[in-house]
Design a protein that fits this description.
about 260 residues, 6-stranded mixed sheet, alpha/beta, about 30% helix, binds zinc ion, 9 helices
Length: about 260
């Protein structure tokens, strides 16, 4: 089969309810899937597979994990369990040069299935899930994407699912947009990325007021992995450029 270069994609996944709520997030994901077309496989770094060290799922299957609590029944009825790709997973581990090991105690969590069930509803594209390793430095998160970047030339899409701004402690459930501090941080990151400046997001701790938007960090780090997989020659497009619940930005990026 002829190889088509596939993009590196960061998706803000937001509330689990976005998976099934007809609104701008879901609509944006659908359009992103149509715009990108179908990759041969997807390597997905998830903000919800939080581990100390870096792990790659190598199993044949992806057990669907409903890692969210107290939501309406219909959310737990979403079925999305694409196959794994053991050969691709082993290849990813070897490309990561000893920095990652196989681990199969997780599956496909809502960070990944909420988005992919809308981008690629047929669940017919194999997915290899990669964890967010909390012992990694920002540079090391970026290096994960850099190491995996050559897969893009083999029709594999590199996906990071998280949120540029994500602070559950400061969420306002009744709010539609974002708090000023959230929108300011999101805009600083966006302005840098569209200019091809990946140093600003990498050194986010130099941005005034970064503490509340980045908070516990696990939702931000997949962005750095995607930036590592992006090339300065890629064209970048911005999707779902809005915030929800005051403290969650949905801003998503396609590098192609
Ligand atoms: Zn999340």
């Amino acid at each position: 089969m002829e190889s088509k270069r596939m993009p590196a994609v960061f998706v803000g996944h937001g509330s689990p309810m976005d998976a099934i709520t007809n609104g701008p997030a879901r609509e944006g994901w659908r359009k992103m899937g149509q715009h990108i077309g179908k990759p041969k496989a997807i390597v997905a770094v998830s903000a919800h597979w939080i581990t100390k060290d870096l792990h790659v799922r190598t199993a044949e299957d992806n057990r669907q994990i409903y890692d969210m609590y107290g939501f309406p029944k219909e959310l737990y009825e979403v079925k999305y369990a694409p196959k794994g790709d053991p050969a691709l997973a082993e290849k990813a581990i070897s490309m990561l040069g000893g920095k990652a090991t196989a681990l199969n105690n997780w599956g496909i969590d809502h960070g990944v299935w909420s988005v992919l069930s809308n981008m690629y509803p047929d669940a017919d594209i194999p997915v290899v899930v990669v964890s967010t390793a909390m012992r990694n430095t920002p540079e090391e998160h970026m290096a994960v994407g850099k190491a995996l970047a050559p897969l893009r030339d083999e029709s594999v899409m590199i996906l990071g699912s998280g949120n540029v701004v994500h602070n559950l402690r400061l969420v306002s459930w009744e709010m539609k947009g974002g708090h000023k501090w959230a929108d300011d941080f999101d805009r600083t990151i966006r302005d840098a990325i569209v200019k091809g400046d990946f140093d600003t997001p990498l050194h986010f701790e130099s941005i005034e007021g970064w503490e509340d938007p980045v908070a516990t960090g696990e939702h931000y780090m997949p962005l750095l992995s995607v930036l590592g997989a992006a090339s300065k020659d890629d064209k970048v497009s911005v999707w779902n450029n809005f915030s929800e619940l005051g403290a969650v930005s949905m801003t998503s990026y396609v590098f192609e």
